[in-house]
Amino acid sequence: MKFKLFFLTALISFFALSAKAQKFGYVDTDYILGQMTEYKAAQKQLNELSQKWENDLKIMKDEVDKMYKDYKAEEILLSPSQRKEREDAIVAKEDAMKKFEQEKFGVEGELFQKRKELIKPIQDKVFAAIQKVAKNNGLDFIFDKSANMNILFSNPKYDRSGDVLDELGVTAEENKSDK
What we know:
Layout: H1 2-18, E1 24-27, H2 29-35, H3 37-74, H4 80-105, H5 110-136, E2 141-144, H6 161-168
Parallel strand pairs: 1-2
């Protein structure tokens, strides 16, 4: 009898505790970041830097292509030692081009480092604001609508993006429903 009473009490307690509704909301970080002038400026700076390096890379590639075409056109007239010298020069130029590409666009390249330097502080600021909004609103979960969450339907009353922008002191430039 005591076991049944204990079991029944434990079962009721379990359901009572699990029945407590969890509060949630969501934000759209793409929208939030798109409203921040500092993020736009950082993105512009990264795009300009990337474009400059892509142009430099194209110039290097064009030089390698020209060297190869010139070599092919004159190959028959060159002595074996001259051929070897030109081939080595082409290979060295290609290696320099690949090294440049890796240094600028590689996984730990300058573009990655610059992105981390410019964007991470902004993302950290947004994350801190999201945490503060969650705490202020007593939310248990905040989902990110823009991070491939695949939210198929979302009630706008749970959207906390505006609250996060307010927390950041950012005024939205456009109506969110126009997005």
